[in-house]
Amino acid sequence: MATFGVMTNMILYLVNEYHMEMTTASNILFLWTAANNFMPVLCAAIADSYLGKFYIIGLGSIVYVMGMVLLWSTALIAQARPPPCDQSSDSCSPPTFLQSMVLCSSLGLIAVGAGGIRASSMAFGADQLENEEGKENSGVGESYFSWYYTLYLIAILMGNTCVVYVQDNMGWKVGFAFPSVLTMFGTVSFFLGSPFYVQVQTNTSLVTGLFQVLVASYRNRQFKLPSDATTNITYYHKNGLAPGFPSSKLRFLNKACIVRDPQKDLTPDGRARDPWSLCTIVQVEELKALLRVIPIWSSGMIMFVDLSQNSFPVLQATETNRRITSGFMIPAASLQTITIISTILWVGLKDSVFLPLASRVTGRPVNISTTRRMGIGIFLSCIAMMVTAAVESMRRGRAIKDGNSSEHHLISVLWLVPQYCLSGLSDGFNEITQNEFYYSELPRSMSSIASNLSGLGFAVGSLLASFVMNMVDSISKARGRQSWITSDINKGRYDCYYLVLAGLSMANTVYYLVCRRAYGPLKAERRLKEHEDEL
């Protein structure tokens, strides 16, 4: 709640209080968003391999509080930010190096802290729902991820309304104090519940084991694999596990688990003498599972480029009529709550209304697979960019038609509702399903990494968004022309910018279909087929 409440309005804080240009402020936010989504993956690897989920969440909470307090201090201390603009000369002083360092340090601490919290919170919650045998109770799975994400979106909704309203109406000092207090309260609450948490033992060799498979496969690259994995070949497996065979996918990795000479490769107690030359079948299959999902994961990056466009819609909303009554005007940043509400409605009504209704109409059970839902989400993101471009073209055209492209010629804010709804549905179909897909397809030992792969995609997507924006800005302003991306959106061409994003999204839709076809059946589908074959 605190993170997104601060992030939503940060573009206005950077432009108005730190006097940054639109491209500079947007690049900072793109990089901050990337860090916010990359750090959970790094912290998840540390959690799964070394510290455990509880300690990562705890340390992240403490660092997060430090970052929020430092950001709050930039609003409290006048010397921490540039002086107000000189109205008489219409000049604004840029931030000094020290002021920029304090600001970036606060954003960096927030990113690291949020990474620790988000790295394991979802998987840590799933751990609490396991029984004594380590098996999932009913309800863990699609319903758990749906409702976890629903509560997550409700927190974002509260941040985009309550926190943004406080910032717009009570100033930045109170606006940053509010989320700072919330983070302190959340940190204390987390540690108070520590005696009751279920803490799953970490796998200290997870990350190292993945690299060991790569090295062992390369070292054994000269070994020729038989066409059939069940041929008279000894495969190395962990003591206590029943002997098995590696899968036929990505067969070159199978070289890492073949025992060529038991006396040389194994110790008397059955362990590998050199784990960088001989790995277990489990290690090989863990790496295979991760590599297999990478193409589908990469298809989500372009969609996340679309979802990273949070700064421009805020400026677009400031150029609309947002007044509901004579005494109340919707904050521009709060319009993103429409996106969140759309996602919440889809997640909340999918299982209780939409799928039962579809089953009744078709006369048979209807269930949308994870990969199909992700594909629908990617396609909807393309439609959302097209609608955004059309609405922006209409808004800008009306402003210019009225005679002065730099004046405010307001259209109703309701024109922006469709693009926000489509973005929300795209997010609901794709992002939440990505978590479910990775968690179900990857081994349980990689649960924290699985629950943060979508965040890594968002991080890379944010970097791509920054790259695309800078490329469009450089190309559009070549030869002295007006850039498409300016602080005055009436002079810019954001409609053309969104058409570029729509084109990328359409190409990404085709790319996803190719990746999905190459992936083959899902794990549940493979198990069902194996069960049918046994019968």
UniProtKB/TrEMBL annotation:
GO terms for cellular component: membrane. The chain crosses the membrane at residues 28-47, 54-77, 97-117, 145-166, 178-198, 328-349, 374-391, 449-469, 497-514. Keywords: Membrane, Transmembrane, Transmembrane helix. It is found in: Membrane. One of its GO terms (molecular function) is transmembrane transporter activity. InterPro entries: MFS_trans_sf (IPR036259), POT_fam (IPR000109). It is a multi-pass membrane protein. Pfam families: PTR2. Belongs to the major facilitator superfamily. Proton-dependent oligopeptide transporter (POT/PTR) (TC 2.A.17) family. Belongs to the major facilitator superfamily. Phosphate:H(+) symporter (TC 2.A.1.9) family. This is Protein NRT1/ PTR FAMILY 1.2-like.
